[in-house]
TrEMBL record:
Gene3D superfamilies listed in its UniProt record: Rhodanese-like domain
SMART domains: RHOD (SM00450)
Provenance organism: Williamsia serinedens
Xref: PROSITE patterns: RHODANESE_3
Domain Rhodanese: 27-133
CDD domains, per the entry: RHOD_1
InterPro entries: Rhodanese-like_dom, Rhodanese-like_dom_sf, STR4-like
Record's protein name: Rhodanese-related sulfurtransferase
A Pfam short name: Rhodanese
Taxonomic classification: Bacteria, Bacillati, Actinomycetota, Actinomycetes, Mycobacteriales
Length: 146
């Protein structure tokens, strides 16, 4: 809230397609990918594999599973992972929704170039209630499962 009682909108640098995100990560040696899905998603669905770029995917939950409670240490953990205000930070979740909140929180904490991957790792539900037609995996970008 502002001093006038008006609700202020927190913003972030913008949305990227998965290909745009890959290009940023490939071209900017300091760019970071932060996967904000849950531990269960990382373990059972997979994570982006940036080893060909000599980078690692930073894993920080935005919300917990199964309760869905927001991680109160999110920005603190972002800093502990070495993310600085000057770096380009690309946030990823399953469908591009949770990562908006993460990008907004990072921006509010001082990260100047916080982006959201709009299609996420698996994309949103299609007309048949299925995921996977769009997103990181569907684009054929590198990923791995444990």
């Amino acid at each position: 809230m502002s001093a006038c009682g008006i609700l202020e909108t927190v913003s972030y640098a913008g949305d990227l397609s998965v290909q745009q995100a890959w290009d940023v990560l490939s071209e900017d040696p300091d760019a970071v990918l932060v996967d904000v899905r849950t531990q269960a998603e990382w373990n059972y669905v997979g994570i982006p594999d940036l080893s060909s770029l000599n980078k690692r995917t930073v894993l920080i939950e935005w919300v917990g599973f199964p309760d869905g409670a927001r991680n109160p240490r999110f920005t603190e953990q972002l800093r502990e992972a070495g993310v600085s205000d000057e770096q380009t930070v690309v946030f990823l979740c399953r469908s591009g929704q949770r990562s908006i909140g993460a990008a907004e929180a990072a921006t509010a904490d001082g990260v100047q170039k916080a982006y959201n991957i709009a299609e996420g790792f698996e994309g949103g539900l299609d007309a048949d209630g299925h995921r996977g037609a769009v997103g990181w995996k569907a684009a054929g970008l590198p990923w791995r499962q444990s």
